[in-house]
Amino acid sequence: MTASATKTEHGSDLEAFRAEVRTWLKDNFPPALEGIMPMMEGGADGSHAADLATWRDRLAERGWGAPHWPKAYGGAGLDHAHVRALAQEMGRVGAINPIPLLAGMGVTMVGPTILEYGTDDQKQRHLPGIASGKVRWCLGLSEPNAGSDLASLSTLAEDRGDHFVVNGQKIWTSGADISQWCGALVRTDKTVAKHKGISFLMLPMDQPGVRTRPIKLISGASPFCETFFDDARAEKDDLLGELNDGWNVIKRLLQHERASQTSAGSPGGKKKAGALQDVAKRYVGVDSAGRLDDPDLRSRLTRHLMDAAAHKLTAERIAAEAKGNPQVGAAASIMKNSATGITQARSELLLEIMGQQGFGWEGDAFDADELATVRDWLWGKAISIYGGSAEVQKNIISKNILGLPETTQKG
Ligand SMILES: Cc1cc2nc3c(=O)[nH]c(=O)nc-3n(C[C@H](O)[C@H](O)[C@H](O)COP(=O)(O)OP(=O)(O)OC[C@H]3O[C@@H](n4cnc5c(N)ncnc54)[C@H](O)[C@@H]3O)c2cc1C
What we know:
single chain; alpha+beta; Butyryl-Coa Dehydrogenase, subunit A, domain 1; Butyryl-CoA Dehydrogenase, subunit A, domain 2; Butyryl-CoA Dehydrogenase, subunit A, domain 3; 8 strands; 43% helix; disordered N terminus; binds flavin-adenine dinucleotide
């Protein structure tokens, strides 16, 4: 490692670090991937697969797939200011870090929780695979009869000496059919209060006892599955945290999940036709003063843009107040609900602006942005459900931030 790299990685020279990133990107980022969001390996048609694999491996080699993680586990040990600078420099050239997407729930949720609760052995075995983008994780929490009231879950793990045998059904398991590992919440003691008999197990998906069945959404996508455990095996070494302390582990993991869902934008995160006000002018037209030619829409659009700006500034203020080391906590629920409202409002406005062009599903009469609009609008409905519904976030805010008395929501 060069002297300058050592210096920058310890946070003393942000500008030098930016210059280093720019040079590195020039040498290492495949230009064909500019602005491409690789939701699946190589993009929907697989045409970028080779470039994506190269880009993933080069990023992983630098530890920049999960740059805030310790170097020992595949990260780069960067502080928040450097992580932000790295993201900004990548954004400047249209480079998207594919590793958090390729690792499923690994970089944003399971990994940070392993860092906090895992043994040294668990960190060494699991984190480098996540940080390289080569091992994808799913999360088996929800069950047909346990969603918001997660503690009612009934998937059972029985102690068989050196391992657990797991039986039960999970549902809405994102990416279960393409994941190598699952972080599952299971019941390990049926005789105690429901929150107290739960554990968090990590188990490999590629085994005879695990079966997945994809569920199709109204948007046409099939991002999640029913997951069946029939005598599935989980090693004792893969119990995360203490036996029967899974409720605390999962509360922490869900805070990480919400913290990763606090930026507002297009639901699909894809590159769009342009700023909302420009799209509106194009579809609706302008008056003689060059303003959007619909006073009511103009006023609602302005309000939305102000809300979006306020959200962004609040996120920046939180980061600044945390002095470069943001802590994940209950406030993530406020930001998740705010991001949800703004993202869904944007989709509604876009649909209204495009009129019937925004409702196209297929065919030459619609351009790519129009076709994406209706799918994004439908997909956006999920944002107020996953990671804990909007109502559940309000319960958390009322109890854990405002200190109001408990309602029906436990935990
Ligand atoms: C796109 C997507 C991806 C997902 N991925 C995963 C995943 O990878 N792994 C996983 O385990 N789960 C996943 N989920 C499931 C998600 O966590 C649950 O859908 C969510 O927690 C709500 O649970 P539920 O669907 O059972 O709804 P319910 O809990 O039945 O809730 C139904 C309605 O009642 C409201 N409600 C429930 N309880 C209360 C209360 N106490 N106070 C006020 N209102 C209440 C809810 O807000 C909701 O509107 C995913 C969901 C979606 C949509």
